[in-house]
Amino acid sequence: MSKSLALVLLGVMAASARADRAAPPPPQTRPGIPERSPPRLRRPPPPPPPSPAAAIAKEGQAVAGTWTCKGALMTGGGASAPTTATLVLAVDLDGAWIHGKLVAGTLKVELYRTFDPASQQWTALMLSNDGAHVAATSTGEANGVWTWTGEETAIAGTVQRRDYEQRDANAMKLWGERLLGGDWQKSYELSCNR
Question: Percent of the chain scored above 90 by pLDDT?
Answer without folding.
Answer: 63
